């Protein structure tokens, strides 16, 4: 049964090839249906693996043969089936399939309909390779593959008119560059691991780690921190998170699949997978918790000030990823992965519902006759959509309440577990995360009120229509999952915890604490109430009720991008330039200081290429002289 | 000074003069002349080496091959020089520095 | 093995080389064109090569009077590369060079070049090695300056000729020193002879500089960008893909012969390799002409080969050597592919007969739209050169880095990290090109574009597929790298 | 002693060949170097190679130089060197002196008598070199023919692609250079 695991990857690859080969000949919905069926098949295989694992929970390693065999390095095409990887596979293929179906409706009429599904299938293949790999190199291939797909999908509408296409492709570049900084960290971590352990197989590295390295060994810290750098890139954590909000330039299903449900959680998966290494380094663990907590709080506060429906969700995603990263940093792998799963449900739901809203409003705009410049993603043009788009509204409510963490929805249980662990071990983190939870409730309530309640503020909103069934059916399914998803790991039962125990080495899980749960629920309700007072009781005009210095700060994302500029401008030293090399100018490709230095060096080097025959020969004579001097010195030694 | 010492010294001195010529001369044909001077030095060196190792005929054989090969190089070089003169109107290597950077 | 097989491997292309020339000089109206003759000759060579691979078990030494030839893994590797790129270049040049004056000389010289490189690969006599080397270099003089009516071509040819000639003179001086010291020219015998410790290192230095000119090690590299950018694209591919490797093989042969008694080659190769990586990358960073950019990128790729070989020789471990040789093969594939693909764009634009160097990166705008296959192939080649997994270039670089980290020596680790960072840096000049390829609006390529003939597309597709296969299954080239590694290990044996 | 004076004469000729501004004169000084080297070779016992050096080096090559100079045109102006003279002299002198210094300690043993015959060595023992030489000559001849070939009148119009920067051969050289540069600039822009 375990031998089926290569099929999980083979199916999406086959889908890519099928649609590449025949995509130009067959008509629009067919390619989408092929891709969705393929994704469903991968899900079916994952379910089979799940069934097999129930009877044999220790899992297996399936090897297809040697890949690279040279010197001390031996890498094989081998896949790991264990509770952790299968849990990830189920999420990726399950949510993925729903998003595929949704996309058939969403991408209807797009000139590159088939290409979109090719990218989606390619992404599935890469993501499944990432989670099922049994060695770091294979994982890295998947890691790069999802990055590439993300790049392609963010810039999918690179040809939109009026400068928007340019913005889309520069957002794609920004994401690509930020990810490569993170990838460099992962790559260096792999070198370090190979250097220390002489292998890149999970079994060798993770199995030997405790024997080879002592707790607190500098090497363990180095490797863990390099891994963390990789995580901050892929999972959009401080300091590399700036790419994710811009990534919303891509089509909404891609945002839901890649930038909310699956790819961005790869970092969480990586930490959970290499938990042994992090456990050896208290410093690195502390850093992970710090990064996760700060990201959670910072991003939640920024989300409060955004007016773009997708950007709110993007910052919300960053914030929720911060929760997960903080959780796995504390060693609470079950809590982190539990939140990963529930978040995949409700955030994919929210994104797709938001897509439905955008679709409906854009449609309404078409009906209302063209006016001046109009942004169908701006929440200020919406309002009163509750009656226009009832299904979208109700599913949205389910997702929003789950995100806010109201019992008994999925988000309540998973977030509560994280808060509980923090409460017991990291009091400061607990306070920060609870504050973030409060802000979460506030901004999602603000969004709901601005979008669905009150009266339509524009003609477009007034004429909005409900989306078609391809889009609504996945929404309903995901809404159901968001409501009942908490059942996966109910307090006292711990189904998921018992399941993952076979793979991860869990920190002691505390009992359900009514106090912690009560406080967070109360705060969530408080957030809702506050939002209702500010946005619910009177029509939202041009001016936001929160207008003021603080709100200005939030709207400008705490000037993070500007802050990066400042830090970089100060020529403290090369190190600070390297560390802060992600300022927006850098990432927009214009002026990384390092790049400037390189360009300057490049120009300088070009001077040496005089094109002068005499100088060229002088180079030869100079080279001869240098080597002769080396010989003379070598003889003396 | 034995004849061999003379030959070895001659080889190095001719090599040096040729190299200097390559660095200092700007006329393409004179550059090729400088190359030829270097070759003369190396011919001397080869024969001297054969002589030292007691195989003067081996040295001669190599020297003949060297002379032929470098005559060919000189001829190709001269042909290039003639074309350069036709296309650039000059033999100055300074003119031949449009490709740079 | 039947001695006739390796002999005919060298003799067939050389003996057949006058045929294209003579046929081409005949008055027209003849069915056989020079190109088909050359292809037929190469087909025969392929058969001979296949026969040889079938029978090859262990290195064979053949003695022709005083001059020895040796067929070992390293010879096979270079011969395979020379044959593969030579054949593809002949196929490719059909439409590319059509109607050029001197076409018949072009094909004749390509045949001679292939034969001379196979001869060089098999030479086991120091002086004979040099003669083949010189024959190879003389073939390329005309090929580089083929567009003799273009001043820039001539300029590139002149620089190439003078610098090559200086290098070759230094090599002969080194040969004279070795002869004086050991009294023999046989590479194996030189290894046996324990010589004076002063003369041999000097000879080694002269060889390093002499062959280093062809290998384009810094600071002897100055001819390279001009020659690669100015020659016809098929020749650029052969020059960059094989001729540099021939220089590398020649250097490795003599270095192995002097291994026991001279300077530490490993450290020297590593040092020059690192220098090449850096300088090549820096020079490539600000290039606006695509062929020149590729030329500089060759310099940095040569650096990786030298680094890998240096690590292997320094530590006496096979993994570094294998990585370096693997990278040499991969570079042949990748750079051949890149030059062929760029040439295809040139063909489409009608910028032939010397317009080669005028192709700016901006001219590639939107190429992938009009020619998806060419665009994809060039993208693959560039990504592979930049070391993006899972492409071929990543695999060999990975082997080199892994070998370096495996030594556990601090300063080698530092070199490896430096090289790895440079690999990331190199993307800074590859990615803009790729970006340009996939731009929406198209440059003149889109407007004046003509259809690409099969003969131009075929080599591109073949190389792209080969590169993908190697990337996904690096073991695919093991049959070449493994014997070559053991041959080199045996040659450097005493370390 | 004879050898020393011959060597000094050869070096003098070489320096003159480098120094003289006139190409023809330089070629003749080169012939002088060649002849003197031939005599030195003869005195070393290399009779055959001396003859070949005299006929090829002093004879054939000189003829070729004269031929090339008559085609390319004599040039008499002394062009100032591009590389600063002290740097050039320093580089070369340092390299050559280092070489000499490292080679100096070698005691040359008395030349042993060589029993072999030149013809046997060339035509039998090193026949592989001789064969390779034929290849080399063939390649060289093709090269010279190729480089010097005159443009064939275009037989089929349209076969040869025309490109903007391609200047007709009869244009003034300055203009050619200018055109190339300006087309490069266009690319940069």
What does this structure look like?
The complex is a heterotetramer of chains A (637), B (101), C (495) and D (189). Chain B contains three helices and no strands. Chain B is mainly alpha-helical and 101 residues long. Chain B has a single domain, classed as Helix Hairpins. In chain B, α1 packs antiparallel against α2 and α2 packs antiparallel against α3. Chain B is elongated. Chain C is mainly α and 495 residues long. Chain D has a domain of 77 residues. The longest helix of chain D is centred in the first third of the chain and has 26 residues. Chain D is globular. Chains in contact: A-B, A-C, A-D, B-C, B-D, C-D. At the B-D interface, α1, α2 and α3 of B face α1, α2, α3, α4 and α5 of D.
Instruction: Note the total helix count of chain A.
Output: 29
Number of helices of chain B: 3
- Report the oligomer: heterotetramer
> What kind of sheet is the major sheet of chain B?
none
Q: Can you give me a brief rundown of this structure?
A:
The complex is a heterotetramer of chains A (637), B (101), C (495) and D (189). Chain B has 101 residues and is mainly alpha-helical.
Helix-strand blueprint:
The complex is a heterotetramer of chains A (637), B (101), C (495) and D (189).
Chain A: H1 5-22, H2 28-55, E1 60-70, E2 73-81, H3 83-106, H4 113-132, H5 136-154, H6 164-197, H7 202-212, H8 218-234, H9 243-246, H10 252-261, H11 266-273, H12 275-279, H13 282-304, H14 309-329, H15 333-367, H16 385-388, H17 390-404, H18 410-425, H19 427-452, H20 459-462, H21 469-484, H22 495-500, H23 514-536, H24 549-555, H25 560-569, H26 574-579, H27 584-587, H28 593-608, H29 613-636
Antiparallel strand pairs in A: 1-2
Helix pairs in contact in A: 1-2, 1-4, 2-3, 2-4, 3-4, 3-10, 3-15, 3-21, 4-5, 5-6, 5-10, 6-7, 6-8, 8-11, 8-13, 10-15, 11-14, 13-14, 13-19, 13-24, 14-15, 14-18, 14-19, 15-17, 15-18, 15-21, 17-19, 17-21, 18-19, 18-23, 19-23
Chain C: H1 4-16, H2 18-25, H3 34-55, E1 60-64, E2 67-71, H4 73-96, H5 103-122, H6 126-144, H7 151-182, H8 187-192, H9 199-215, H10 223-230, H11 233-257, H12 265-285, H13 290-315, H14 318-349, H15 367-370, H16 372-385, H17 392-407, H18 410-437, H19 444-448, H20 454-472, H21 478-491
Antiparallel strand pairs in C: 1-2
Chain D: H1 2-19, H2 23-44, H3 47-72, H4 85-103, H5 118-125, H6 127-148, H7 173-188
Helix pairs in contact in D: 1-2, 2-3, 5-6
